[in-house]
Amino acid sequence: MLRDFFAPLFILLLLTTCTPTQHIRGNFVEDEQLKKLKVGESTAQQVREIIGPPSSQELFVGKDWYYMGEKTETVAFLKPKTIKRHFYILEFDDKGVLASLKKFDEKGIEISPDGSKTPTHGRDPSLLAEFINNIGRYEDPGSGRRRKS
Predict the structure, then answer these.
(1) Structural domain tally of the chain?
(2) How far is the C-alpha of 36 from the C-alpha of 90, rounded, in Å?
């Protein structure tokens, strides 16, 4: 009897873990929201009400707003797959009216770290030279006093 109950429950549990889960990172603006904006007419306040606050803003003057967003999908324990990515720059004039809307394509550049070492200036002693230089720099076991370095 328990077997008849737990077997379908276990199968149902396995099936639900394999359904894709969508994640949204950043301020993901849908195309329908962008269509509501009118260049030359929409004010900064209207833009904020329609598509929300910007992901980032120009630091000093504040006339440019940046919207960055990414939608990913993850199935079970697999690596997330990017479904859609966008980047918009909205520029405002001195009166706070939308002057231009620039849309960049979805291709993002993935940055992979460089495995090489950072060069350091100075000597590069060999292992033997390091060993010889370190003789006498550390404590003498059992003496309780430290040698001069």
Answers:
(1) 1
(2) 14
Query: Considering the domain boundaries, does residue 51 fall inside one?
Result: yes
Query: Which pLDDT value is given to residue 58?
Result: 83
Residue 27 in this model has a pLDDT that exceeds 70: yes
How many other C-beta atoms lie within 10 A of the C-beta of residue 84? Answer: 13
Would residue 54 count as lying in a domain? yes
CA nearest to 63, candidates 33, 24, 27, 90:
90
**Is the residue at 96 inside a domain?**
yes
The pTM of this model reads 0.59
* 3-state SS class at 29: coil
Polymer length of the chain: 149
CB burial of 18-36 (b: ≥16 within 10 Å; e: otherwise) equals: eeeeeeeebbbbeeeebee
Q: For 1-113, where are the E strands, in sequence order?
A: 21-26, 56-57, 64-74, 81-92, 98-104
Range of the domain at 48: 19-107
pLDDT exceeds 80 at position 32: yes
